[in-house]
Specification:
- The protein has helices at 3-8, 10-13, 19-27, 40-50, 83-94, 109-117, 129-142, 171-174, 186-189, 193-212; strands at residues 30-34, 54-58, 99-103, 121-124, 146-152, 155-161, 221-226, 231-236.
- By secondary structure, the chain is of the alpha/beta class.
- An eight-stranded mixed beta sheet has the order 3-2-1-4-5-6-7-8, sandwiched between helices.
- The longest helix is centred in the C-terminal third of the chain and has 20 residues, at 193-212.
- It is globular, with a radius of gyration of 17 Å.
């Protein structure tokens, strides 16, 4: 690293277990973030600030006034712009030394598979189950770690699914495709702005840990946060031996 990089990332480098070697792994990494809403905004900003070398931002939406209560990478001047363009500008303003690519479309099919394939890690910051299941299938097939977050009302949840580990469940082990999307509709149920900020920031934390080897990731556990009471639970997740997606896979 150059002197300027050593200064920029000095607080990371001071951490035992991360230090220079871990920071260099961040600088060499590519992270795909699907969804640049309430979760994806803080996640992208923190990963940009942390020095993840290449971010790939995927979202097909445009910035709306109602987004600004919680989607902190966007501002009033960005209303009408694509969310990926708005988020890219903020990420590069924070850290001009990284690379930020935009996928201004809804990822599905081969496009999703290609985006996951070219990444070291995926953050699922989407807001519908169809996309979540598709991302999970691609990550399992390609052996890519997945950091999944969700939030509604004043409640949030977070987990890590790492198909490189034989004992790791996948998203499909936790949820059935029969579940409806209604539970994720913020426009009807509402959402407390800082809750998505907390969960998105925790997604960035887990991504940094996985990429750098720092700490112990949340693999095989589900973190549940209730912002109304500020109660937090950590549940163990077991791999489903009959899972339609990951059963029979032994990891790398």
């Amino acid at each position: 690293m150059q002197d300027e990089e050593l200064l920029r990332y000095s607080r990371h480098i001071l951490l035992p277990g991360l230090d220079v070697a871990g920071q260099e792994q961040l600088l060499a990494a590519t992270v795909l973030i699907v969804g640049l809403g309430g979760l994806g905004c803080p996640a992208a900003l923190y990963l940009a600030a942390a020095g993840v070398g290449r971010l790939v931002l995927a979202d097909h939406d445009r910035v709306e006034l109602s987004n600004l209560q919680r989607q902190i990478a966007h501002d009033t001047a960005a209303i009408g712009l694509s969310k990926v363009a708005s988020a890219r500008a903020r990420c590069l303003a924070l850290n001009p030394d990284i690379s930020v690519d935009c996928l201004d479309k809804r990822l599905s099919g081969q496009a999703l598979f290609d985006a996951v394939s070219s990444s070291d890690l995926v953050l699922d910051c989407s807001d519908n189950f169809d996309t979540r299941f598709a991302i999970n299938e691609a990550c399992v097939a390609l052996q890519k770690p997945l950091v999944s977050g969700a939030a509604i009302r004043s409640e949030g949840q977070l987990s890590v699914f790492d198909p490189r580990r034989a004992d790791s469940p996948c998203y499909r082990c936790l949820y059935s495709p029969d579940v409806g999307d209604e539970a994720l509709n913020c426009s009807e149920a509402g959402v407390l702005g800082p809750i998505v900020g907390v969960i998105g920031s925790l997604q960035a934390t887990e991504a940094i840990k996985l990429l750098s080897g720092y700490g112990e990731p949340l693999t095989g556990r589900l973190l549940l946060l209730d912002g109304a009471t500020m109660e937090c639970r950590n549940l163990k997740l077991a791999k489903d031996p009959a899972c339609a997606v990951c059963a029979g896979r032994t990891g790398s």
